[in-house]
Amino acid sequence: MVSVVIPTYNECENIVPLLECVAPLAEEVIVVDDNSVDGTGQMAMDFGGNVRVVIRPCKMGLSSAILRGFNEAREDDVIVMDADFSHPPSVVPEIAEALKTHDIVIASRDKIIGWGVRRHLVSKVATALAQILYFRGRINDPMSGFFGAKKSIVERYEDSVSPQGYKALFAIMRNYVHDYGYDGIASVNYTFINRKFGGSKLSMPEIMDYIRSLFKGKIPMPSLKIPIPLVQPSYTALDRIQSSGYCSFMMRIL
Ligand SMILES: Nc1nc2c(ncn2[C@@H]2O[C@H](COP(=O)(O)OP(=O)(O)O)[C@@H](O)[C@H]2O)c(=O)[nH]1
Ligand SMILES: [Mg+2]
Question: What is the CATH classification number for the domain harbouring 53?
């Protein structure tokens, strides 16, 4: 018994064929659409059946759409997939099966077809940093956007996910691994084929968001030891501090 969450933003060429493939494989499908201008949300609503649609007012970020899907899910086993067919619906039953006995199931890309050099490079660097800093090579594809997880697990760690970001699975897993280790995580392999219709919504802000999240709480920032006066300085004392250049120094470092 699974809920499938599909975040969408301008996926009008893909959404109906995808729902035709995925709806029969799940108890429910939850489409989280950010008011796509191309009518994706309406098309999903017209599909009916076991498809539920959440329309948010504007583009609010992939990770926040994923979390909203988990919050809406009626099943405890939830699978997240892109709307663009790069995550093949045929893998959904495999993830669902593994999710019966695991907390997190990653659909790992053993082969990627159709990406350019730049996208390969971004993905390789992002994966290498995650492996070095958090997973010591024990997770096959921590950057995957195709995964299953228990609703209860994701809701426990949802505060650690950056809403605008792209890497919800990475943020959840790094906390999960810290608390429980690797035994509750399984992986199934598949071949990723890049989308035929529409364009990727991954852009520089999402990449920067990931880099920020990598180092958040990992590398302690050196603290600046600035003496705080115990007594409120009088105006004359303040004048003296200002004239000594202390304030302009503070302004510069802030
Ligand atoms: N609701 C919502 N969906 C999004 C947003 N950004 C991307 N998506 C959807 O999330 C999925 C992943 O985005 P995609 O552009 O395919 O990223 P890529 O696979 O990394 O190139 C697709 O189904 C998009 O339509 C967003 O801000 N809000
Ligand atoms: Mg995609």
Answer: 3.90.550.10
